[in-house]
């Protein structure tokens, strides 16, 4: 077996280093949210945005999702996205239920 024609793809180390630096910057920005003592919706929005950006970079580059077939990407990403839609629907329903309870029982 010839090892020079082995299957697989080699990615340049510079790509991984750039992503690592970007993850470090996003983590520093996430910590800065606490350091400057932001509060309320802005704080949680920024923390969640930085979290999703870091998770997306890790999935795309380090888990090699960027180089996979579209069918596999859809098979992995669509079910969690559907769950997020269902969670959003249940949040809307819970707010409606809470509103009606306050309206009729107070």
UniProtKB/TrEMBL annotation:
Cellular component GO terms held in the UniProt record: plasma membrane
Highest taxon of source: Bacteria
Protein topology in the membrane: Multi-pass membrane protein
Report the principal subcellular site. Answer: membrane
Listed A to Z, the keywords are:
Cell membrane, Membrane, Transmembrane, Transmembrane helix
- Transmembrane regions: 12-32, 44-63, 70-92
Localization, per the record, is: Cell membrane
**InterPro entries listed in its UniProt record:** Cyt_c_oxidase_su4_prok
Query: Does the keyword Transmembrane feature in the UniProt annotation?
Result: yes
Protein name as catalogued: Cytochrome C oxidase subunit IV
Name the source organism. Answer: Lacimicrobium alkaliphilum
């Amino acid at each position: 077996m010839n090892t020079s024609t082995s299957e697989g793809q080699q990615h340049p180390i510079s790509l991984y280093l750039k992503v690592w630096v970007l993850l470090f910057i996003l983590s520093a920005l996430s910590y800065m949210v606490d350091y400057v003592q932001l509060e309320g919706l802005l704080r949680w929005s920024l923390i969640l945005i930085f979290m999703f950006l870091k998770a997306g970079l890790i999935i795309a580059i380090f888990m090699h999702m960027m180089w996979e077939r579209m069918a596999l990407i859809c098979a992995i990403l669509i079910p969690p996205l559907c769950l997020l839609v269902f969670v959003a629907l249940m949040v809307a329903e819970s707010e409606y239920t809470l509103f009606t309870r306050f309206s009729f029982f107070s």
